[in-house]
Amino acid sequence: MKFVIFPMPIFKITDDLVFPHPSLAEDGLLAIGGDLRPERLLLAYSNGIFPWPEGEGTPILWASPDPRLVLFPDNYIVSKRLERMIRQGKFTISFDENFTQVIRSCRLAARPGQRGTWITRAMLKA
Q1: Span 33-91, pLDDT tens digits
Q2: By the 8 A CB rule, do 119 and 50 touch?
Q3: Rounded-to-integer distance, Cα 86 and Cα 55, Å
């Protein structure tokens, strides 16, 4: 039996602010390269594409997995159990507070069984 292997297309990102269509992301991986400037990140996220750094000093991978989770805050229903926990004051819910420190802490969190983190210095800076 003979197999023909067709290579998966992976697009190289240039300085232009453009991404290939997410439907071209076979197995989720869409493109490689580019930068993390705000304009590129906004374009990526608004099209269901997100950066996936593999480590310090490596080119950025851009992914668009299908299916992917999309949360619509207006449609979120809080479970009775979570509602009880919130009322008990066990947790504090906040947003838009100390974002940099939260990301730094996530970057340093122990990940048993994993090597490294996707939160590289470049991602932290972005």
Answers
A1: 999 999 999 999 999 999 988 778 889 999 998 887 777 889 989 899 988 988 998 77
A2: no
A3: 37
Domains of the chain: residue spans and CATH: 11-125 (3.30.70.3550)
Q: In a 3-state reduction of DSSP, which class is residue 23?
A: helix
CA 24 to chain centre: 18
List, in order, residues 6 or more apart from 104 with CB less than 8 Å away.
124
CB 52 within 8 A of CB 61: yes
- In the predicted model, is pLDDT for residue 4 greater than 90? no
Reported residue count of the chain is 126
- 3-state DSSP helix/strand/coil % of the chain, to nearest 5: 35, 10, 55
Q: Which residue has the higher pLDDT, 87 or 116?
A: 87
Segments in 2-98 forming alpha helices (H): 38-46, 80-87
